[in-house]
Amino acid sequence: MAKIVIVGAGIGGIPMAFEMKELARKEDEVVVIADTPTFHFVPSNPWVGVNWRKPDDIKVPLAPVFKKKKITFIQQKVARFHPEHNHVALEDGSTVDYDYLIIATGPKLAFDEIQGLGPHGYTESVCHVDHAGPAGERWQQFVDDPGPIIIGAVQGASCFGPAYEYMFIVETDLRKRQIRDKVKITYVTSEPYIGHLGLDGVGDTKGMLESELRNKHIDWICNAKVDKVENGTMYVTEVDDNGQVKKQHELPFKHSMMLPAFKGVDALLGIEKLTNPRGFVLVDDYQRNPTF
Ligand SMILES: Cc1cc2nc3c(=O)[nH]c(=O)nc-3n(C[C@H](O)[C@H](O)[C@H](O)COP(=O)(O)OP(=O)(O)OC[C@H]3O[C@@H](n4cnc5c(N)ncnc54)[C@H](O)[C@@H]3O)c2cc1C
Fold this sequence. Notes:
Layout: E1 3-7, H1 13-23, E2 29-34, E3 38-40, H2 45-49, E4 59-61, H3 62-68, E5 72-75, E6 78-82, E7 87-90, E8 95-97, E9 100-103, E10 108-109, H4 129-144, E11 149-153, H5 161-176, E12 185-189, H6 205-215, E13 219-221, E14 224-230, E15 233-239, E16 245-252, E17 255-259, E18 262-263
Parallel strand pairs: 1-2, 1-9, 2-5, 11-12, 11-17, 12-13
Antiparallel strand pairs: 3-4, 6-7, 7-8, 10-18, 14-15, 15-16
Bound molecules: flavin-adenine dinucleotide (FAD).
């Protein structure tokens, strides 16, 4: 009999648990540990951010789903991974042993790397439903008294699609409300060109997205480094292809959503041979950590 532990119950952890249950032998135990009672469908967060959906519309309680599948569910935060001992330490002080471990904890959102960034600062986030819900409430206040908008992704971000997605959703919402003419939208991104998406483009995304931005009268600044954010002002350094300063911008805004850089979650930080200095798990071609 083997005990297979999966940490995290997001888009990664849940399908992993279901497939593992099907693949494992009858006598094996599949355990999911996650720090939330619900799954939430991350790609729907931009809709929550403009109130096209409510947070509860995109959440599913985890316990009944796992019970039905005969998967053990532990609703706890993993405080620390101990791969050398084959166990994880939970926040309540207990430990869970395993024969096999699957880490699906997703990213830590590194808002703290830029002063004033994120929901505890002056910009909104659609990376988590707990951010998108309050953002939706503030969106309602914004449309009652609109002003300039900045949307984009900061230096070190690795996920750009949601910034474009949210921007087009916001633009559509403003047009539906017939207040688009009252709002200047600027897309600020660390991408070297529009449509790069962190992937040097996908098909003709450079041409297509540039064209859509022009059609919708959205300005953009690429190769941008956000230096800091203050209440109503974003300080941005635009660099050239050699990384030299091209222009400094002080951009006023009344609403902003900026995607942050990612790190590994705290429980993974600084574990030699398991993670790199940013806490990302080191893997081989088969997504296995070579040491553990
Ligand atoms: C707005 C937006 C739109 C997107 N759209 C798309 C799209 O259209 N297509 C696409 O392919 N991708 C899209 N993505 C990316 C995709 O959503 C993510 O890659 C995916 O959600 C990541 O899933 P995950 O399970 O790895 O991490 P997460 O969804 O972050 O899940 C991590 C889980 O681990 C738990 N956890 C974390 N730390 C601990 C701990 N210490 N102890 C216990 N539990 C812990 C969390 O509570 C959570 O349950 C989008 C992302 C965003 C933000």
